[in-house]
Each structure stands twice: as structure tokens, then as C-alpha cells.
Amino acid sequence: MAARCNSRWSLSGMTALVTGGTRGIGHATVEELAEMGATVHTCSRNEEELNQRLQEWKSKGFKVSGSVCDASSREQRVQLMEKVSSIFDGKLNILINNVGTNIRKPTVDYTAEEYSGIMSTNLESSYHLSQLAHPLLKASGNSSIVFISSVAGLVHLFSGSIYGATKGAINQLTKNLACEWAKDNIRVNCVAPWYIKTSLVKTLLENKEFLDRVVSRTPLKRPGEPEEVSSLVAFLCLPAASYITGQIICVDGGMTITLSLKSAIQLHESLTMSLVKVKSKSHQAECGSHPNTHACHGVSREVCTTSWSFLIGPRTTLLIFPTTWYSPIKRKDQANGPDRPLAFNVSTSHQLLRLHVGYMSLS
Ligand SMILES: NC(=O)c1ccc[n+]([C@@H]2O[C@H](COP(=O)([O-])OP(=O)(O)OC[C@H]3O[C@@H](n4cnc5c(N)ncnc54)[C@H](OP(=O)(O)O)[C@@H]3O)[C@@H](O)[C@H]2O)c1
User: Is any atom of ligand 1 closer than 6 Å to the C-beta of 69?
Assistant: First the structure.
């Protein structure tokens, strides 16, 4: 029993490449994987810092080597993978695509160079390194890729549209590769953090106003630590995670589970007064033709034709209708008087949240 446990929860004998391992999430991941028994190769651009880290890891007894490599350069990525192939005998069990960068600006202010820089560092490097690693991962017979994406690839944040686009693309790439490479016994997953205390966001989090905004959107009321991300990354690489593939898992203190509801409340505040004045007629056609309204949420056509639905996010529909016409959420003490209670249903692909918001006249 103990031996089975040990092998399921150990990376002993495995080889790993972690990009960007000298600081932040990459650094924590190198240590996590090495502590669990993996032999790790990492890379970064700053040679001095890389050598310092390699010394530290050596003194901790970790088996870690490193290369200077700018992951945004196609040529250097090829050289990196050649090195990895030579030190690990053409086989690799784990690829962690961690390198990423950001420039925060309004969309109209980005230059072409900034666009290319963020795209090549975040998306192209992950894509190309996965391509280059494929024969090595396949040769190992049992392997795993983990992308470090971001919650910015799932929901809108104040972190810039290019960054969000690269992370959204990585999320989708995770699903494509998980299906395409499952036959090669390569699992592909993605970890999407919210604010984590690293050098990438140090200046931002030192700004009290910014930190307050982050904390106010986080149920756990704090930013995360790099080790709170690396623990999940390592888990996804373990034999214990052998049936998990194609998943995007948030490490976000609960931030993403609150966002839809919050958006809906804000939307409600701005829309409610004008909505009640609108006659339902113009909405009947729109609502009746809305595919999700009937299929996903079990709302009857009768209710639907007397309600309003708005797509307020990629996976979120806000349904507004009088509860007196929708018996499952009608409260016993509510009479069919002129003041009818309204229910705001916030539906996502995962769940249906109901928010009873009070009374409003529809007459
Ligand atoms: N921190 C957050 O709040 C947060 C939130 C969501 C997602 N993420 C994602 O998590 C990943 C890691 O971020 P982090 O916060 O740990 O960043 P970080 O503290 O800035 O560390 C980045 C690491 O990657 C290396 N690196 C950066 N650009 C590189 C390049 N072009 N080629 C090779 N190495 C490079 C850096 O070393 P050199 O500079 O010496 O190259 C460093 O080791 C990124 O993909 C980021 O988008 C972070």
C-alpha cells in the first residue's frame, strides 16, 4: 500500500523542462518538481541570476540544470530543445510552459512591436516549445504538459487586451493538444492564476489602490503566493493525475466564481429602471430565438416570451423575469399583486445562480 502511494505521489525518475525558472511561479515550480524527485532543466535570459539559482538548487540537493534562452526567439527555442534532448537522452516527461510577460495599456495605444513581443513571449513560445517537445514527450511514453495561463484568459481584467488574448489562446490550445496528443499518452493541462506575488506584478501590488481592487475581487482577500500555484502544477504532472487532461484550473482565491454574479449585479443596477418601462413585445422575438434560454436553463417558452435575456459574458446569460410567472422560485408569501417580485438568474455553463432582488412593478 505504501509503495503504491509513493509511486502515485512521486516524480522520481522523471525529467522536466520548466521555462522561466529563476523567479516567481517558474522558480517555485522548479523547486516543487525537484523536491518530488524530478530532474529539471530550466531557462531564463539573465545568466548571472540563472547561475545563482543553479548554485542554490545544488546546495539544496536538487537535480537542476539550466540554459540561457530567450523564449521569445524561435532560434533559441530550437537550441533549448536540442540541449534538453541531449541531456535527457531524447525523452521528456514534463514540459511546463511558464514564461510570460505583459504591458498594460489601453488597446489603442499598443505599438506593433509591443503586440509582437507579448504574442511571441506568451503564445508563440508555448506553442512552438510544445511542438518541439512532442517527440521527446512521446518517446517517454507517459508525459504531461502544463501551460501557465491566467484568469485574464477567461474573464475581462484590467491587464491589457493582448495579454488576455494570449492567455485565452493558451486555454484553447490546452484543449486542442489534449485531444490531439492523447493517443501519444501526453496529458495537457493549464493553470490559470489570478494575482500572485512575483516580480511580474510587484510594482502593481505595491500600489495600495491597486492592491485594494485585487483584494476586493478575491473571496480569500489576498493575492496568492507562487507556491500556491506550483503545488497544482506539480500535482497535474503526477501519476495520481493520470485521468486529468484538457483542463484549465484557476488558482485565484475564488475570484472567477464571483465575477459573473458581480457583473450581473452591476448590470442590474444600470438596467433595471429602464427595463421595467420597456414593453415585452420587442423582446419576445429576441428572447424566443435565444438558443440557450430554452435548452440550458429549463425555462419554459411561456416564461421566456415574457422575460428578457442578455448575454453578459462569453458563458453568462442574465435572465430577468417575474417570479410570479416562474413557480419554482416563487415564494409562498408573494401575492400576485401589482408589485411583482423579480428574480435575476445568472446562468453560466457550469451553474445557475439565482439572485432574488426584491419587488418591482411591471404594470
Ligand atoms: N504573477 C501573477 O500575478 C500572474 C498571474 C497570472 C498569470 N501569470 C503567469 O505566470 C507566468 C510566470 O509569471 P511570474 O509572475 O512568475 O513572472 P516573473 O516573476 O516575471 O518571472 C518570470 C520568469 O520567466 C523568465 N522569463 C521572462 N521572460 C523570458 C523570456 N523571454 N525567455 C526566457 N525566460 C523568460 C524570467 O527570467 P528573465 O527575466 O531573466 O528571463 C523569470 O525567471 C507568466 O506566464 C505569467 O503570465 C502570472
Answer: yes
